[in-house]
Amino acid sequence: MKAAVVRAFGEPLVLEDRPDPQPGPGQVRVRVEASGLCHTDIHAAHGDWPVKPSLPFVPGHEGVGIVEELGEGVTHLSLGQRVAVPWLGKACGRCEHCLSGWETLCAAQINTGYGCDGGYAQKMLAWADFAQPVPDGIDPREAAPLTCAGVTTYKALKVAGVRPSQLVAVSGIGGLGHLAVQYAKIAGATVAAIDVTDEKLALAAELGADLLIDARKDDPSQVLRRHGGAHAALALAVNEASFSAVNAGLRRGGKLVMVALPAHGTIDIPIFDTVLNGTSVIGSIVGTRQDLAEVYQLHAAGLTRVIYQTRPLAAVNESIEEVLRGQVKARIVFEM
Ligand code: NAD
Ligand code: ZN
Ligand code: ZN
User: Is the pTM of this model over 0.85?
Assistant: First the structure.
């Protein structure tokens, strides 16, 4: 089977022929049909973050495919079933976080395409308890972006406690942002979409955004404040300054949800304004299996649109360049 492998940080990925991986106890082997390119995969391949993957590794945590072999003890999945293999590859199931519905905070978790090989391959392994069944009728190429971009933004809105009539700022209309706009509309919010390209702002409008802010021309904080300030702002752009801009555009009691992970990122948070305005800064990491099931349910009900362009896996390096140049409409999906 073919896999795209990171052999050195910051170097092009190498397409390799590898033997099919063999599922251990509790695992399954998946024949990957479609696999999304999340910006996180680029951070992983560049070694951008303090905790780095061990080399060599296969990135990808939006892999969707068909279960073709069951490891020992797997009884709840069947051969031929379609599953997705998300970032949360495995969690311990016993710690306070796992037991309280916060498995995404488990300190013993293993992340797909980071702590173990991921979906940039024709075959991959998954822990059966964390392989997410994909409902019939969802195209695998649409299920792929939902598996990280979808669940992450759906969860970010949940942690912000967004309610109908609120103003929600979505900063960065990329893979994550194009779904965030739709979930915020489903929640009944008024949506302000912020980006730095005409195409992304046009896409946000097409997906229902009410207010478009071009951060090249206007200061998002001023525009948001003119509209009374955002009840919640999702920071999805890989740009530190954009975090501060939306933080300053919160209304009193508003919530900044940090989601994007720019390399070495830090922001200055003014203590006085934060205290006096009673604002919150929250970090949000992907979503649970239940969150993902809800994301698929919304899509199966026809409530969301996934915007994607397909590429062969052999185009992995050009595809990464396209994302970095901001030229991808929303998400690239590799077809295996
Ligand atoms: P992407 O490249 O598809 O989208 C980023 C968008 O930000 C692009 O549309 C770009 O034009 C826009 N942008 C760039 N500069 C901007 C600025 N100054 N203001 C507003 N918009 C700007 O990336 P993605 O796949 O959507 O991922 C975004 C980030 O989220 C990455 O850092 C990724 O690692 C992170 N991420 C986090 C989680 C999590 O669980 N916290 C999950 C998935 C991805
Ligand atoms: Zn991701
Ligand atoms: Zn745990």
Answer: yes
